[in-house]
Known about the structure:
The protein is an alpha+beta fold and about 525 residues long. The protein folds into 4 domains: about 5-90, Death Domain, Fas; about 110-185, no CATH class; about 215-305, no CATH class; about 305-525, no CATH class. The protein has helices spanning about 5-10, 15-20, 25-30, 35-45, 50-60, 65-75, 80-85, 90-110, 125-135, 145-155, 220-235, 240-245, 250-255, 260-270, 275-305, 355-375, 405-415, 420-430, 460-465, 495-525, and strands at about 115-120, 165-170, 175-185, 305-310, 320-325, 325-330, 345, 380-385, 385, 395, 400, 435-440, 450-455, 485, 490-495. The strands form 4 sheets. Strands 5, 7, 8, 11, 12 and 13 form a 6-stranded mixed beta sheet that branches. The chain has a 4-stranded mixed beta sheet with strand order 4-6-10-9, with no helix packed on it. It has a 3-stranded antiparallel beta sheet with strand order 1-3-2. A hairpin with a 2-residue loop joins strand 2 (about 165-170) and strand 3 (about 175-185). Helix 8 crosses helix 10 (about 145-155). It is globular and about 85 Å long.
Amino acid sequence: MDETQKFKIRKNYTNLLNNLQVEDFCDNLFSKHVIEFDDIQRVRAEVTDKDKAKRLIDILLTTKGSFNPFMEELKLSRSDLYEIVEKTDVEKELKEEKQNISVYLKFAIKRRFMFSFGMTVTESDAMFAIGHEYWRDGRGELPKDISYCLFEAISKAFKEGYVKRISTVQNGQTIWMYTNIELNPFKDTLSERGIEYEEIDFEESTDTGEPIQLKDLDTSKLKLMLAPYFQRKGIDEKYLAVFDEEKIDGEVFASRTTWGENVFQQKLDGLFAEMPFGDRWKFKNIVTTIIDEHYITSLKSSRNRNITIPRCFNTAAEMKFYKNGSVLEIPQFSESSDLTKPIHIFGQNSDQVDISLPKSIAMESAKFAGACLTNRRNGTIHFGVSQIVGSHEGKVVGLPIAVPDFMQIFYDEIKRCFHKDQLDIVLQCLRPPELIRVTKTPKKETRPLYVVEIDVVPKYETTHFDTFYVKDSSSEGDSVGAIYTFLKSELTVLQKDQLRKYMEEKICIAQKRKTEEFSIGQRKRPKSHTDGCL
């Protein structure tokens, strides 16, 4: 369907779901080669007429050339609904959609690209970078065919320079590209840029057996510690010279804890007067992050120096490291826990390398996401962490990830694992992989190692009452796919004799998720002056 046809269906979505019986639709659309046999199976697996209608319409919305055959069937069975859909005006919705995409494109372009005279970026690379931002922001799959407004958005984003859209022919194919822009290097990881540095690890012991203290760092080691933070945040490293000029060492740096907020801001403004305001704001957050992490590490050191605190759920892994051999401390799973409290599992640590490793990680992540979606439960799957036998904790070992290619291969494999009518929903729930650098790796290991973590957030407003199928080796010979679930924190496939029961229970599961989210929202809602009044 084109965008006009999709909006006509969406504008009448609820009316169609409540008034259609689609069993005959499926047979007729299948005979016209509009839908596949596995589509019919997924429709008929649903229990209620409303769920069956929803599944069919969602399939048609992502099927090319399906609108006219659907309207023909609708005209024969429900001419009243046909007239309503056919006469629906969607000009306003189309205009708003185009404006929303243009606004987002401008925002994403500014975040991912920079003006650079003489440089070029291919349109396919630009689309992938923007699509990744769209995915990371929890918006799902980037809408198709947005290249019509990409050039306009790039031109508006870079008013200080002249950007052109040009084409060239390579191997008989036309390649479109944009001139005078390039990917912002500060938005890429250090490994993508080939930057190597030595980390200062506060969990490492000195010769006396005591943990390294922030206050004990001299100026050169303090600068060494700050350099990767500056690189990640795009702050010019020339400002590190201030630490030499003003003789700021670890002891002075650590004294930040004794300053009030206003005093700290004054000192920051005075020392870094020439630093742009935005960079000063970022540097302030860097200082706070380092102080907080050092405090947490100091507490851990008094108990067990080999414990690693995991990344917070559904947050970026910026400036986060895991120490090789440390124990990742995660909450123990309970079947009775709230759905919004994440379940943690450790993915299989494959010895595969190169292109097969990201495929393996993506396949395992798809199964895990399927189980989270089935149960409407938040969760994180960790790769590069070996589960300790008899424990819910894991040991950090890391995996050799080829960062530049990993995201593309992972994304392509995830797309293969889910039906196209559910892919956008899946990508709104399945967060992009977070790559966390492993420090203190064995000297014989020449490649950088990472722990890969993928979060799943199956919000009610996104998943509603849908059933999610994963197409993998477990469903070989069955193009519909498998429904994954959890059994005592282990991944398992829902068997056919359990399918009917799940279809009847999924509404209750979804309602439970909705109730929990509402309860959290109420707790977070700031109280007004009238709250609690009689």
